[in-house]
Amino acid sequence: MVARQLEEQIVGRFPVGQRLRVLDVGMGQGTQALRLARAGHQITGLEQDPTMIAAARTALSGEPEGIRERMRIIEGDGRDTGVHFLPGSFDVVLCHGVLMYVEEPDPLLAGLARVLAPGGLLSLLVRNGDALAMRPGLSGDWAGALASFDTTAYRNRLGLDVRADRLSTLTATLAGIGAPLHAWYGVRVFTDTAADGAEAPADLEALLAVEEKAGRTDPYRGVAALLHLCGVRG
């Protein structure tokens, strides 16, 4: 879903065929970075976890030379973009699945906006702080659901204590750093309670169509497990 939504924003903002400079902060194993490199863009991946870096390098090593040349991987913390990059260095900045691990996200977001060129796209994927009660509630954990209403703290599937973000708070933050919200989507509206590693259903395309529609339709997107926010640098 995120790939489809991101592609929609890129196609709507940049000329067809333009090779974009993309920064992927907290790139993990490089799924989005590799996809964009295959599409012809110049990618910089920033990651601090050695295990994830190793996985990304392994995946990259299996790609054709032209794709390998379009992607570089830097070991570092997403909060230190000012150390690695000049202002306005990138047309697109991705920060997917990172903010939940950052206690104070505003400085990180300001740093991301700083390295974004005017008119550039900032793509954030965050845990939806307005819908934390949905997962435990749908699983029949009534005590857990009740405790989720008045907090943005939660324990993720890895057993880590992390935090979520509310749409209203991030909207204000993006406006304050000069990259106001342009579009937003819900991700995992109906599928958040699916078991990790579950096999893809036979009707996968129908499932994706429903999730795609729900992710851009009110009121469904407001209760999605994740929010995909796209800001544009003024």
Automatic annotation (TrEMBL):
It comes from the Bacteria. Keywords: Methyltransferase, S-adenosyl-L-methionine, Transferase. The keyword Transferase applies. One of its GO terms (molecular function) is methyltransferase activity. GO terms for biological process: methylation. Residues 23-123 form the Methyltransferase type domain. It holds the Pfam family Methyltransf_11. The keyword 4Fe-4S does not apply. This is SAM-dependent methyltransferase.
